Structures are given as C-alpha cells and as structure tokens.
Amino acid sequence: MEIREISQEQLAGWMKEGKEFQLIDVREEREHLQHNIGGDLIPLSELNRLSHKIQAGKPVVLYCRKGIRSRIAIQRLHSKFPDTEFYNLTSGLMGFRI
After folding, report:
1. Long-range contact pairs involving 13-20 (C-beta distance under 8 Å, separation at least 24)
2. What distance in Å separates the CA atoms of residue 32 and residue 29, rounded to the nearest whole number?
3. Domain layout of the chain by residue ranges
4. Is 14 in a helix, a strand, or coil?
5. What CATH topology corresponds to 4-95?
6. Distances in Å between the alpha carbon of 66 and those of 4, 49, 95?
7. What pLDDT does residue 96 have?
8. Are 26 and 47 contacting, i.e. CB atoms less than 8 angstroms apart?
9. Residue 97 pLDDT level (bands cut at 50, 70, 90)
10. Cβ count near 30 (within 10 Å)
C-alpha cells in the first residue's frame, strides 16, 4: 500500500482555500496540549476505539511529531476505510513551519 504524503505547503494551501478535509493528530494528549496545528485528537494508542470519529467522506490528513506514527495510523485505517483518501503530513510537526 502506497501512503500519500502532503507537504506543509500543500496543507497550508488547503487551509487557505477552505478545502474540505479532516485533520487528525495521532500523538498522545499531553503532546497535543503542548503544541498542535488544530484538528481532532485521535491518539494512535486509541485508534481502534476512536476510529468512528474518522470522516470517511472527505480527505483525511494525519500528523504526529515526525510522521512515523501517522504512517502507522494510515496503514491501520486503510483496511477499515478503503475508499478514504488518507494523507501523511511529510516530516510531521518537525517540518511544519507555517
């Protein structure tokens, strides 16, 4: 399975133009409270229990600190939501400077 990537510039463009998508932070709550770029908090550790929060009718962008946990989350979610477009924020928050 190929995981689609979205750059910080592309994500900023989507936000600026008002594109419909869901933004999900897969880090733990304490990390999210320290710094986040918005979106829903669905920690990787709670992904199975909270997967009902995924808005499958629109593109879904997942992020974490470096982009590793969000890639794992996408792999897990893809089998449950095969028709949903999932995107991994390239380099995660480490690369987010917008």
Report:
1. 14/61, 19/59, 20/58, 20/59
2. 5
3. 4-95
4. helix
5. Oxidized Rhodanese; domain 1 (3.40.250)
6. 15, 23, 8
7. 65
8. yes
9. low
10. 8
